[in-house]
Structure formats: C-alpha cells, structure tokens
Amino acid sequence: MKKYLIVFVVGSIGMLKAQTSSSVKMSLKQAIESAESNNIDVRKSSNDVLMATETVKQTAAIGLPQISASAGYNQFLTIPGQYVKNFAGPSPEYIKLVFSQKISSTAGISANQLIFDGSYLVALKATKDFLNLSTLLDAKTKNDVQFNVAKAYLMVATTEKNITVVDANITVLEKSLSDLKEVNKEGFAEKLDVQRLSLALGNLKIQKEKLSNGVSMLKNVLKLQMGMDINTNLELTDNIEQINDQIKMSDAEINKFDSKLRIEYQILDQSIRLGNLDKKRYQMGYLPRLVGFYQLQGSTNRPEFNFFQSNLPINNSWVPSQLFGLQLQLTIFDGLAGASKIRETQLKINKAKLDLENFNNAANMQFNNAQKSYETQLKQAEIQKENLDLAKQIFETATTKYNEGVGSSLEVMQADTDLKTSQNNYLSAIYDLVMAKIDYYQTTGKTIK
Fold this sequence. Notes:
Elements: H1 2-21, E1 23-26, H2 28-38, H3 40-62, E2 66-75, E3 82-85, E4 94-97, E5 103-116, H4 118-185, H5 191-226, E6 233-236, H6 240-246, H7 263-284, E7 289-302, E8 319-329, H8 337-403, H9 409-444
Parallel strand pairs: 1-6
Antiparallel strand pairs: 2-5, 3-4, 5-7, 7-8
Helix pairs in contact: 2-4, 3-4, 4-5, 4-7, 4-9, 6-9, 7-8, 8-9
C-alpha cells in the first residue's frame, strides 16, 4: 500500500511539474488581443461603460409612470378624547367624548406621471452623450494598453535578440579559443593571446547572464500589461525584425494628419457637448414642471381587531376614495443660484474649448516630431545594416588570415570587437525604428493590429 502511495505522489508531482513548466506562446498580435480582454484597466473601463448604460436607464425611468402602494395599521392603547360641557344636566359639569375608534387602517395605491419637464428632456439627452463619452474613454484605455503592450513586447524581443547575438559570439569565441589553445601547445601562439580570448569569452558570458535576468524582468512587465499571471511562462514568437515588418508605414499616408482622428480629440469634443447640455439643463429649469397623479385609497375605523370576521356592521366597512389631478411647479425666484450655475457652466465650456485648442497644437507638434523621427531612424537603420555587413566581412577576413598564419590575434580581437559594436548598433537602430513607428501610429490615431 505504501509502495502504491509513493508511486501516486511521485506521479502527481511529475504532472504538476509538467503543468507549471508549460509555456504560453504569443505573437505581438495575440499579446495585444489578450491585453484587450484581460488587462485590469480595460476591464475597469468596460465596467464603466456598463455603469453608464445603467445611468441612461435610470434617467429614462424618471419619465415613466411611478406607481406605489401603501398600507397602514394603527391601534390606540388609550383612545384620545375631549372634555366638553354637559348640556344634558347639571352634573357632572363636563363629560368626556371620544371621537375615534380603537383601531384604524388605510390601504392605497398611487401613480404619478411626468408630463413635462424641460430639465428632464435635456438630462435624458445628456445621459446618452455621457454613454458616448464612457465608450470613448474605454476605447482610449484599450489604445493605451495596446501601445504599452507593443512597447513592452518590443523590449523583450530586443533583449532576446541580444542574447541570441551574444550566444553566437560565445560559440565563435569558444571555437577560436579551443583552436588557439591547440596552437599554443605547439608553440605557434603566445599565452597572452589565449588569455585575451578567455577574458573576452568570460565578459560575454557575464553579459549574457545580465541580459537573461533582464528578459525575466521585462517579461513580468509585459505580463502585467497583458493582465496575465506573473508566474506564467511566456514565450515570444515574434522577433524584432518580424515586428518591424508587421508595423508597416505607407508612403502615401505618411504626410497625412488629422487631429480629429485622435481619440483624445473626440473625448474633448464630447466633453464640450456635455457642457452645453448641462448649461441648457439649467436654462430649462426656469420652465414649469407639470406632473399628473392618481390616488385610490380605502380606510376603516373599528372598535376591535375583527378583520377576519364576516357579517360586520356597516360602520366597520372600508370607505373608498379616489383622487386625480395635476401639479404645476414653477420657479419664480431662486436667489440667482440658477443664473450663477449657468455662468459657471459656460466658464467650464470655455476652458474645455481652450483644452481642445491646446490639444490641436500639441497633436500637430507630436505628428511633426514623429514624422521626422521615423525618417531619421529609417536612415539610421539602413546605415547600421550596411555597417553590420561590413563588420562581418572584416571579421571573416581577419579570422581567415589568422588561420592561414598571415594575421595576428590582435587583429581578430579588434575585428570581433567591431562586429559586436556593429551588432549592438544595428539592434539599437531597429529598436529605435520600431519605436518611431509605434509613436507615429499613436500620434496619428492608428491602431497597431
């Protein structure tokens, strides 16, 4: 029995390890789609849209019939009365008269219907615009998350590419160091050359370890942006060159810009609309408010609790009553509070218009900067690609010469250093180019997907 138990436990641990070691593989597009569903800020903004929808329903309900029912029961422990002069005889001079029954009860139903209220009509329109504003804010949140995920994904992909380059350099140096040691044993190479290569190899391994640690931290940032569990093993399927190819730039559209396409512009414009509606709501508040009502009520007074008895005298019966009418409300003087609210709302509208004007200027500046940055980074990437190809040729030539005995190890070391520098410069240039593309998309109101 113990033997079977041990086998079961060991098997369970193995299955648990297999589950925890499984990885989630994602492309940039999949990462963005995952974030749009799981990011906490996105889920909160989606919840805000649902709340705004309920606000619209609550406001609309004010214009629908309001029906309520009521019931009451009263029982006197001591029935009140009143002393009056005794007109029936000389004694006693005053007698106590009781005009109430011991038990009284009422039951009724009432209905109210708003017939006209200018403020309500404006408020109903404002709630719909408020829903539109919530939808725009939700779209902006998704856009922000999309670009944040793209930038975080790019940083991870760039760092992983650096590790790949370092790994390739380590392989080359290990091969060169192994060959050099054999040559050194034969007396055809100096020990100093072996030490130099060993030092370079050791530095590369340290660099790789630092980059590996950096990847883990950057992946955590990406997983946080995606709303993914931090403990999940995440693997990226797109490298930096693939990301660069995916985010395309059209020459026909590169000079086109319209700030109205920016979600920020639409939000500011919507806030101005809401401000105008708010102002109109206060203005409509000076119009009369008309409400219709209807009431049906029954009441009874009884000397004792006999509601479940039959064949009672008529004075124990329920006495019905009905009432309907109209109620008109008109504000004659409110201490000038309404006029002050109208002026305050107009000041808010003016401020929102200034914010919109400022945004237009800032958006045009951002577009010009993003356009120039993209053009600059595109040229830099082309130059660094040419430099990298040249550095590879120089390194191959230096290695060939050294193997044939007509070159020096110092020349190989210098060529290797230049190659690493060119590789780093090229990766940095591609990273800056993709970042420039992302900034351009964000500035023009485009989406990456």
